[in-house]
Amino acid sequence: MTDIGIVSYGGSIPRLRIKADEIAKVWGKDGSRISKGLGIYEKSVPSVDQDTATISVEAARAALNRCQIDPQDIGAIYIGSESHPYAVKPTGTIVGEAIGATPDLMVADYEFACKAGTAGVQSCTALVKADYIKYGLAIGADTAQAAPGDALEFSAAAGGAAFIIGKDRVIARINHTYSFTTDTPDFWRRSESKYPKHGGRFTGEPAYFKHVTSCARNLMEQVGTNPTDYDYAIFHQPNGKFPLKAAKLLGFTREQVNTGLIVPYIGNTYSGASLVGLAAVLDEAKPGNRILLTSYGSGAGSDGFDITVTDEILHFARHNAPSIQQLVSQKDYIDYGTYAKMTDLLYWE
Amino acid sequence: MRDVVVIGVGLTKFGELWEQSIRQLTAEAGSKAILDSGIEGKDIDAMYVGSMSAGRFVGQEHVGALVADASGFSHLHIPSTRVEGACASGGLAFREGYLSIASGMNDVVVVGGVEKMMDVGGGAATETLATAADQEWEAFFGATFPGLYAMIAVKHMKEYGTTKEQLGQVAVKNHSNGAKNPYAQYRSTVTLDQVVNASPVAYPLGLLDCSPVTDGAAAVVLCAADKARQFTDKPLVKVIGSGQGSDTLALHARRDITTLDATVYAGRRAYRQANKNPADINLAEVHDCFTIAEVCAIEDLGFVEKGQGGKAVEDHVTTLGGRIPVNTSGGLKSKGHPVGATGVAQIVEVTQQLRGNAGERQVHDAHVGLTHNVGGSGATCVVHILEAM
Amino acid sequence: MPKDVPRFWREQLQRYNLMANKCNSCGKVFFPPRESCPDCRRRSIGQMESIKLSGKGEVITYTIIHVGPDDFEEQVPYPIAIIQMDEGPRLTAQIVDCKPEDVHIGMRVESVFRKIQEDGSIGAIYYGYKFRKCILASDQPSSYEGEARAEQAPVIQ
């Protein structure tokens, strides 16, 4: 049976950072207490000329730089985000044009809170498996907005990762994928409002934990694995604590979760979060490593993937694009005033 | 080709002229020039008007017809043509007027230039001026007009060691001259310290390195030399050379960033026609939209070696008492820059100098003068050489 | 400035992908593409071939804009430069991701895809090229990743 899976990948994280301390100071809170509590020290901030489209293009180009694929052979692009630049007009076509994949191309934009990117991976995998397309490009990217003074202000960040799915020279085989989905209104945004609303503690047990653990357990049962069979586990990371708790609930160790946990250093990149975690793992993974990826999107659902790294990764031109660690470390700090200007907190004509 | 002379000049004050519209400005400058020349309306064979962007500044195109009407000549049905070449519009209008007489087609022509920039407000004025640049490949990406000249300055500084102080000296000199010009927008002097420390606009250019936004109009009357004495007894000033050149619209496409090849070309053609060298020029009105522009101009017109422009300004070569006085009117910097009018105003200044009418700004023994008018960052240039008869 | 959608859509390939063209008669590369070669003129008719620029080039002059157009007010002060692309043509673009004072003549840069302008909050968004200092040196050492890790925030307890 031919391997179907990840052929290449790339990440994009804006350079600007704001520290949790800096935000806390403005609202009269104790920054170090908040950082420890949330497990987030600083978050990425998009510059005024960056948005989900530019982040997606950068991630996609990084992925293309690492492989020999002709962009014309990409048959589908699915971009998942909560912050598509237009409410109507797809981000996928902008990216398609910018990477030279048009016009023989299937495109639609996805939304499912923070799991829209992994939903794209599922669609691409299915289209490749059905032989409708040679390669599919799935991207999860966001420039998340948070209301000033709200708890989410410490975590809502910007970034994304792109994955090219195909059958040729697969570096990480997708053995199986499964999703667990219910109608759970833990976090949402109405079209007229600028910022999302969330249910406070309701976003924990009945939302994140129920879906992530159910998805992971069901997936492992379907595949016939245990936590000990995996070298890496990546969970959606709305903060630095939830993934650790999920890991513990499921029986994974800290060591398995560490590499894929990027949120403490860049914040929650929403639709990009679990995919950025996966990219960080692939940056160091060796042939034979097994990975469990479980994303989570409010509303609510989790997409699970059982992935095995192949020998092909030894021939993979990883150095042709910056690694997630490099992107995390390439940063410039800004203060709250600059942050407010850039994220349109200040009203002006 | 017939000989052509300037027989009348007229100027409005340059500045913030809130009370005056385009019609009033052109009527004022035009009637002054006509009175100065001794002609009457019925003698005019044609009018040429330089106007860069009346459409964007006052929402009005069809400026040729407007000016003829405002001047009271519509019932005479005098042909009136608007000429546009960004900031060189006035100089180009002058050339068209000159050529129409030199060719034998006309005997008496009125050339005007006008711009009314204050009505739209600073941001819109800046955007409109930027239409002189390449809109799609320069302005769209965030390059401003001062930004383009600033890039010329940065390269000039790197290649030739020109300093911010030397650039600032251009402004000091021009304000010193402008202080003596009753028509100038700014009649106050500035110190080098003030110029160098002025608020930044585009590195290394600060506010005082940049010419202002201005309302104003200028006009001249041109006449076939052999008919001039029918109208006037005043000293005649002959157009002995006219040159015009073009170059790429975008600065980035030029052969050499710090040389305006259009200036070199236009200058050479004018010198050749006039049978003169740079050393024969007694004074020049050059296009100092920014201080760096004057530095490049004196190099590209051959007054000093390429790269030595900054030093020349520093060494007072171009002051009122220097070897070659440049911008005795105060230049665009101090006199003001109502875009379409500038090229014509330069002719007015040189004519007054060659007639001996320049008052406190008079250059001694001024026989031959040169005007240099540029469009955009150097995509158009027109040079004229005039001689006292 | 008036922002008409068709006018900027027409140039998307140039702005997104640096699509240039080359005169096959003399080999000179033009950006934006030209209908014919100014040097070869009629010899170049039918000889102009589409090519994509690599995005890499060198700053040959620059400035820092302090007073910008209305649409760029949020970004002031920002560097703008004339960049000589490796294939020959030059273009004008913003330099991003560095302090304005770090820009210098001779700086090696690579293109990035960014928002250039938007037509207010209800009009279209226009994307295109800006440039940043080259991120990956061609001889980048593998120890780079190790250095990167050491700089991070502390591992959470």
Short summary:
The complex is a heterotrimer of chains A (349), B (389) and C (157). Chain B has 389 residues and is an alpha/beta fold.
Would you write up a description of this structure?
The complex is a heterotrimer of chains A (349), B (389) and C (157). By secondary structure, chain A is of the alpha/beta class. Chain A folds into two domains: 5-171 and 313-342, 3-Layer(aba) Sandwich (Peroxisomal Thiolase, Chain A, domain 1), CATH 3.40.47.10; 176-311, 3-Layer(aba) Sandwich (Peroxisomal Thiolase, Chain A, domain 1). Chain A is built from twelve helices and 14 strands. In chain A, β9 (187-188) and β10 form a beta hairpin. Chain A is globular, with a radius of gyration of 19 Å. The relative contact order of chain A is 0.19. Chain B is α/β, with parallel strands linked by helices. In chain B, α4 crosses α13 (339-355) and α7 packs across α10 (291-300). Chain C is mainly β. Chain C is built from three helices and eight strands. In chain C, β1 and β2 (29-30) form a beta hairpin. The model of chain C is unreliable at 139-157 (pLDDT under 50). Chains in contact: A-C, B-C.
CA distance, first residue to last residue of chain C:
54 Å
Instruction: Look at the structure and give the mean pLDDT of chain C.
Output: 86
Q: Determine the number of helices of chain C (DSSP H or I, runs of at least 4 residues).
A: 3
Instruction: Report how far apart the termini of chain A are.
Output: 59 Å
* Spatial strand arrangement across the major sheet of chain A: 5-4-6-7-1-8-13-12-11
User: What is the residue-averaged pLDDT of chain A?
Assistant: 95
Strand elements of chain C, count: 8
Oligomer: heterotrimer
- CATH class value of the largest domain in chain A: Alpha Beta
C-alpha geometry of chain C: globular
Give the second-level CATH assignment, the architecture of the largest domain in chain A. 3-Layer(aba) Sandwich
Task: Give the CA-based shape of chain A.
Answer: globular
Q: SSE order of chain A in H/E notation?
A: EEHHEHEHEHEEEEEHEHHHHEEHEH
Main attributes?
heterotrimer, A: 349 residues, alpha/beta, Peroxisomal Thiolase, Chain A, domain 1, 2 domains, 3-stranded mixed beta sheet, 12 helices, 14 strands, 32% helix, C: 157 residues, mainly beta, OB fold (Dihydrolipoamide Acetyltransferase, E2P), 5-stranded antiparallel beta sheet, 3 helices, 8 strands, 35% strand, globular
